[in-house]
Amino acid sequence: xxxxxxxxxxxxxxxYGFSVPDKSVHKTExxxxxRVLREMxxxxxxxxVNEWIHKFxxxxxxxxxxxxxxxxxxxxxxxxxxxxxxxxxxxxKEETSWEELPPGIKSTFDKLGIPEAERKFLSGVxxxxxxxxxxxxxxxxxxxxxxxxxxxxxxxxxxPHIFKKWFGSIIPPEDNKFSAxxxxxxxxxxxxxxxxxxxxxxxxxxxxxxNAEGFGQFERTLIIVDEGAKAHYIEGCTAPIYSKExxxxxxxxxxxxxxxxxxxxxxxxxxxxxxxxxxxxxHAFEGATVEWLDANIGxxxxxxxxxxxxxxxxxxxxxxxxxxxxKGQHQDTGGKVVHLAPNTTSKLIAKSxxxxxxxxxxxxxxxxxxxxxxxxxxxxxxxxxxxxxxxTDTYPYNEVNNESATITHEATVGxxxxxxxxxxMSRGLNEQEALSLIVSGxxxxxxxxxxxxxxxxxxxxxRLEMIGAVG
Amino acid sequence: xSVDNFLDKIKANNEPSWLKExxxxxxxxxxxxxxxxxxxxxHQTLFNDFDLEEFQDYINxxxxxxxxxxxxxxxxxxxxxxxxxxLPDSLKEKGIIISQLNSDIKNEQQFKQIxxxxxxxxxxxxxxxxxxxNSGLYIYIPKGLQIEIPFRxxxxxxxxxxxxxxxxxxxxxxxxxIKEDYSIRSDKSVLFSDSIEVLLKDxxxxxxxxVQNLGQNIVHLSxxxxxxxxxxxxxxxxxxxxxxxxxxxxxxxxxxxxxxxEDMEVLFGNKEQQFDVFSTLLHTGKNTIGRVLSNGVxxxxxxxxxxxxxxxxxxxxNSSSFLGEHAMLLSKEAKAKAIPGLEIETNEVKATHSASVxxxxxxxxxxxMSRGLSDEESKxxxxxxFFEPVIQRMLLDEIKNKLYQLLELKWQxxxxxxxxxxxxxKTEEFKEMKxxxxxxxxHYKYR
Amino acid sequence: xxxxxxxxxxxxxxGKEIVKGIDLTIKKGEIHALMGPNGSGKTSLAYVLxxxxxxxxxxxxxxxxxxxxxxxxxxxRAKLGLFLGFQYPVEVSGVSLSNFLRTVYMxxxxxxxxxxxxxxxxxxxxxxxxxxxxxxxxxDQSFANRYLNEGFSGGEKKRAEVLQMAILKPKIAIIDEAxxxxxxxxxxxxxxxxxxINKTNNTGILLITHYNRILHHLAPDYVHVMINGKIIKSxxxxxxxxxxxxxxxxLRAG
Lengths: 471, 447, 254
Known about the structure:
The complex is a heterotrimer.
Chain A: H1 2-15, E1 26-27, H2 34-43, H3 46-49, H4 51-66, E2 88-89, H5 103-112, H6 114-121, E3 124-129, E4 132-138, H7 140-144, E5 148-150, H8 152-158, H9 160-166, H10 177-185, E6 191-194, E7 204-209, E8 216-217, E9 220-225, E10 230-238, E11 246-248, E12 251-256, E13 261-268, E14 274-284, E15 289-296, E16 301-304, E17 307-310, E18 316-325, E19 330-339, E20 345-354, E21 359-368, E22 376-385, E23 391-400, E24 406-414, H11 418-426, H12 431-442, H13 444-447, H14 452-466
Helix pairs in contact in A: 2-4, 4-10, 8-9, 11-12, 12-14
Chain B: H1 3-11, H2 17-32, E1 74-78, E2 82-86, H3 89-93, E3 97-100, H4 108-118, H5 124-132, E4 135-141, E5 151-156, E6 161-169, E7 174-182, E8 190-200, E9 205-213, E10 218-228, E11 233-240, E12 245-254, E13 260-269, E14 274-283, E15 289-298, E16 303-312, E17 319-329, E18 335-344, E19 349-358, H6 362-369, H7 375-385, H8 388-393, H9 397-411, H10 417-420, H11 428-435, H12 439-443
Parallel strand pairs in B: 1-5, 4-6, 5-7, 6-8, 7-9, 8-10, 9-11, 10-12, 11-13, 12-14, 13-15, 14-16, 15-17, 16-18, 17-19
Antiparallel strand pairs in B: 1-2, 3-4
Helix pairs in contact in B: 2-5, 6-7
Chain C: E1 3-13, E2 16-27, E3 31-35, H1 42-50, E4 56-64, E5 67-68, H2 74-80, E6 82-85, H3 97-115, H4 123-136, H5 154-168, E7 172-176, H6 184-200, E8 204-209, E9 222-227, E10 230-235, H7 237-246, H8 249-253
Parallel strand pairs in C: 3-8, 3-9, 6-7, 7-8
Antiparallel strand pairs in C: 1-2, 1-4, 4-5, 9-10
Helix pairs in contact in C: 5-6
């Protein structure tokens, strides 16, 4: 067993925990101010091109400075906003060939296996290194069908009509303190448009890598799935292990137009020095389906509650959130569904495991508005505590303003049954292996929903967490 | 309601100085706190706009009903003064104490202790009750005394009443309590703050059946707090039917190893009634067992917030806890929120909660109709079945029958007529009625 | 003479036709078996006969003793003497079986009896009656106090359905998959309960079943095969044996 742990530890350090020297081409001084914002805006070339976006950024900054830190959720008191670097440009321009990338960056993504995955089973890839996208690709046939998959800067320049119509409309800067921060300093991320009726069969993938120390990554994603279209987007993220804390505050806006089907999968595996404070929200119109598959394994603290506003009749939301909190980690996650139209349905499943004093919190909202007749919704939360020093909380808010709704909520907290453990050990597994197996089984509902390659990766991460090797 | 007026009256009562100081501190806490003082629930309350000034000081002299305090072992409180205590000599001899709180407070030390320890449970209206209580009762059950006959506690609320009831049960003692709240129907806004504070020593057991059938002119603030030592048992069995706005807080502390607490609540809202109910189980002792079930049926424009929290702290190994919140909405304008929380700090536990908000399932109605019941009869049967778990646990058949009658009347929107029968409930006529084989009273007799 | 007559019945749900022209007559005292593979529309037909609101009748008639009952709600049909034994009986929390049965008895039989000046069972008599019925079905007396179908096993639920039928004494009973979830012993009791009511009350029975397991214990006078919303073949007990041997496929092909 010890040998196995060592191997896995080594594997983790090699696989994710490394960093390459900072060879950025631009870097703002630490701390946030209007001056830093202007400097960044200038580097990005927004100043003369687009006042609209600059005003948007200022709106975000003003609100961020005004708004107090949330008092609920995790402990945010040790984030030092003055020591964080808010913008770091890694390369002069985004490339469409891996070979064009600087060697350090290329080797980073090689190690993470992104080019290989792209060849094998992806429709398109965008990778971000610190503040900017450094590589982007999209299969030619999809490009021909009118699919757009670019970074937001390009999106705004090339497709202003679509971009401006929706950008910031799903999550305005004032939504919360960290959406305000993102609105001020957003850089990188994805802008995706799927034209009516187009089905993107293989996933589009984004990979977010933080390389710098004491850094803030604020990518912003806007996805519009037009009528009857279908797509699946996957994001992954990792960072090196540093003693200094980094901040990741993303905003993801999704618009699912009538009859569309969209799935968003996240495999969050930040190192344990990253605060991960993310706002994700989708609007689903008539007959549309939005699915959030959200796995949170890494980070020091994650506060993230992917949400769906069901705006049209028969729209559907499906949220599956899994979390693993090991030593020093707090996963404050969950989901929100707001039913605004009749005959809408939702399902929210959350599963969490806490170990080695880790803490998981489920926080969820299920709201049925007056106008939403015949809503059906089920919520289920299960938490496993692997030892006596770990913690878990469950805070579900169920609000029903329409009598025709049927909503149910169930939650359980427990530990691994001795009988189950004994059974597996009687078949020759050691305790560690048996526990890992049970925990993998507990998360199986998630693993079987994601593409095989990711499921393998996910299961390995769980195994790593089980032996406490991450971070 | 004028707070100064209140306090002046209390001062005249020659209370000990520690109590005066306690009241003053409590008043400050009351004024500084919000109805929900945690981030988690701060928007989930119906009492943010509560204002004491809205309640006029007045004495309703023209109408009041006399309780026929026929039971031997009983207490009645009419407004803040008309107090009657029936305590049989046989019990008095065994060392049981039942006394008013604001006259000669015996066992002052224990009284002080329980007040101060309960005030640590931070709740705005618990503080208000501490500051302003103007009547109440102190009940002390000595070691080893187990009393089978239920103690009847009748309260009539026809003007502002801030009452406190303290139970101290010594080691291995047992008491059963039936608490009933009534009021004369009126359109004046009346405040009723009602705090029940319980201390259970090792092995003690208390069962409280509480039936609240106040008029819909009354704002009812109920606080129920229990602290249980080793192997103690606390049972709450509560039915909220009346009141214009009801705020209920049940807080059970499972302090000693092997202690148990159970809180079964039902509420039935109609017209424009509002309910804000919150039940907490705090497990700190090992091997403790907690269980909360809160069911509500909401008709017309009534609304309810069901809040619950199970906290299991690190030392409470091998504890198990359940929290259920279920609301049935029976009209377009009824609304409900269910927020069951869990905070678990150790793994050797079993904690589950379940919540639902729904109308009656069509398939259930169809099933009953296929057996010959009309649509309305089917709905009624299913909805009233929702109250069964609590009614079944009520002490005394008399109380169960009262509840069936009340449910029946309320189902028809005629709950006010229930009061007309109050006197009858004690009479031969009622006993006769109980025997009558009418459909309603009859078919419940089997159980 | 009591009889249930179904004439050219067409039924839709969510715009899809699932019963496509059924003609069937069940007379008092007769036992009919309606067999068919899963999804053939058997359960839908049972629901429609009892008046489930989610189905839309696009054509045809259902007559009970010559009276068209299509516009009647389920309770009115029950009062006229129609009974449906559910495949999946619904659980109703907080309503004890005895309370339920007594209410149903009073509501359906009680009034009728009063009208014709017959004696209505008093509470005590009813209790005795119930006790006896529970015994016959080998159900523990404690069932009387348990909540309706809540926590009952498959076989217990089915026995409770038979119990309800015994109390309601219907003219015509439709019994949907009487044997699902029941073990051999329970099955025998269920079959016996059905045979009893058929004999003592002369109740006409429509047994809906996928397998002919129950038919070994309860001989049908007629067997009908329903596939894809239509009765494609009718016959006597031999037809059921044929199905047991060869399955539905050969019939479908034919």
